[in-house]
Design goal:
By secondary structure, the chain is mainly alpha-helical. The chain contains 6 helices and 4 strands.
């Protein structure tokens, strides 16, 4: 055997020994895939592939060994790629979408206030024989009618109310009269005898104006006798009981 062949054989043995030692020190490393090696035929042919630079091969094995040890120290399994952490994203709740109900009133709608015409003050209702301090005229009433109703002197009533006789028949609804607390009406207070029945002649009539036709009857007494409101709307031909 020539010296060259012996040298090649020695190097091959050295390389194989180094590979075996490196394999022993690589804990938890995956076994390298077997690669079929074609061995050429002929005499004096080494079963190992020739290496032009054996030291470079040894250095490469040393680097692989160091990398494997570093992976083990870091808690990773050599040869197994690390699995990236899964980021769990919790979807934000969708903003509440206001629902529209066609039958509901919008929360930002302004209330509509009906505009009504100011009504006249309610008439003073007092028991029979009692005189109120003041009285507010209703539709169809006049001072002489009120003087008969409360049995007071009409001239004294006008004087206390700051009115004259020429103004007596032209006062508007809502005028406040001051009622005298003494004296009496001069003459017969009743204009028409009663009890009786009365048939409504006009839709403009009210219980207050009908009471004035009788003079000494209170409109609230007529309402009670007919079981209606004192402000009830009357119809033409309606029959009323006059107490």
């Amino acid at each position: 055997m020539s010296n060259n062949k012996r040298s090649l054989l020695a190097i091959s043995i050295f390389v194989v020994s180094t590979m075996l030692i490196s394999a022993c020190t690589q804990s938890l490393s995956s076994a390298p895939l077997a690669t079929p090696t074609v061995i050429p035929d002929g005499l004096f042919v080494s079963p190992f592939p020739s290496v032009e630079n054996p030291m470079a091969m040894i250095e490469e094995f040393a680097k692989q060994t160091a990398a494997a040890q570093t992976s083990v120290a870091g808690g990773e399994t050599p040869g197994t790629p690390s699995t990236p952490a899964t980021l769990e994203v919790t979807p934000q709740a969708d903003a509440a979408t206001p629902t529209t109900d066609v039958f509901s009133t919008p929360t930002n709608a302004q209330p509509v206030t009906a505009t009504s015409q100011p009504a006249a003050a309610a008439a003073t209702s007092v028991p029979p024989g009692v005189r109120p301090a003041t009285y507010t005229l209703q539709k169809g009433e006049f001072p002489y009618c009120i003087a008969r109703r409360f049995n007071v002197d009409p001239d004294q009533l006008l004087s206390l109310s700051g009115l004259t006789s020429t103004q007596a028949n032209s006062l508007s609804t809502g005028t406040v009269l001051t009622i005298p607390q003494s004296g009496s009406f001069p003459g017969n207070r009743a204009l028409v005898s009663h009890p009786a029945t009365y048939n409504v002649l006009s839709a403009d009539e009210t219980l207050h104006s009908i009471a004035c036709k009788y003079g000494d009857v209170d409109p609230n007494a007529i309402a009670t006798a007919n079981n209606i409101s004192v402000s009830a709307k009357l119809t033409v031909g309606q029959t009323l009981q006059i107490p």
